[in-house]
Amino acid sequence: MFITLEGIEGSGKTTALPRLVNFLEGGGLACKVTREPGGTPFGRRLRSILLDPESGNIDSTAELLLYCADRVQHVRTVIQPALDAGQTVVCDRYVDATLAYQGGARGLGMDLIRAMHRLALPPLMPDVTFLFDLDPRIGLARAWAAVEDGQRHRRESRFEAEALAFHEKVRDNYLALARAEIERFVIIDASVAPDDVIQQLIDAIGPRLSTSSAGRLA
Ligand code: TMP
Q1: Which residue in 59, 71, 109, 189 is deepest, having the highest Cβ count within 10 Å?
Q2: Could you tell me if the CB of 166 is within 6 A of ligand 1?
Q3: What percentage of the chain exceeds 70 in pLDDT?
Q4: Ligand 1 centre from 27 Cα, in Å?
Q5: What is the pLDDT of residue 152?
């Protein structure tokens, strides 16, 4: 089973992820936890370029190509092999992030993103995508607080530094993607306390696991 977590900056997905994995492993599933960008050694180098404010204004198409390079390496060397070995892959961001950020907020369009993926990658989509949804004003406040108190490195704040309108576009695009694929997406109310967020994840994943080929929870 292939599970992805998506959302704007400060939506809490990265905090919730280990608790979701605990729940899955407690039910007997072997999990491969990974993320984009940065799920491979090559990807970690790309991540430091993509997220560092010192990279400045990267041309949107150049930015897209780097995210795609990260993904091609990641799918071929990490995600697909883990799925082939019967593991449950839990990935912090995947193709929906490229659709929402580069396709939507940067304005490159969904068709270009989809065409590039068709060219470069096998048609691998997640079985379940959790969209952590919240008001970008709250998300950005949380994200900057994490930078201020050292939980997130300032060298990874290039997207946090984008205007509120950019993050509103990202959110709207994510919600549009979720509405277009209601079977795959689960929208999580990320404005509530962490325990309530994790409860929403567990409530949604439980029934899906019992019907998945990945196995059953005890
Ligand atoms: P994160 O690891 O903290 O989620 O940060 C990754 C950043 O990269 C986040 O701002 C979203 C952005 N991003 C894109 O713009 N396009 C993509 O395809 C991916 C995977 C991430």
Answers
A1: 71
A2: no
A3: 96
A4: 29
A5: 84
Mutate to test the pocket of ligand 1, among 93, 94, 171 (most ligand atoms within 8 A of CB): 93
**DSSP for the chain?**
-EEEEEESTTSSHHHHHHHHHHHHHHTT--EEEEESS-SSHHHHHHHHHHH-GGG-S--HHHHHHHHHHHHHHHIIIIIHHHHHTTPEEEEES-HHHHIIIIIIIS---HHHHHHHHHHHS-----SEEEEEE--HHHHHHHHHHHHHTTSS-GGG-TTTTS-HHHHHHHHHHHHHHHHHTTTTEEEEETTS-HHHHHHHHHHHHHHHHHTSTT----
Task: Report which ligand 1 atom has the smallest distance to the Cα of 13.
Answer: 4
Q: Model pTM?
A: 0.94
Q: Give the tens place of pLDDT for each residue, 130-160.
A: 999 999 999 999 999 998 998 888 898 899 9
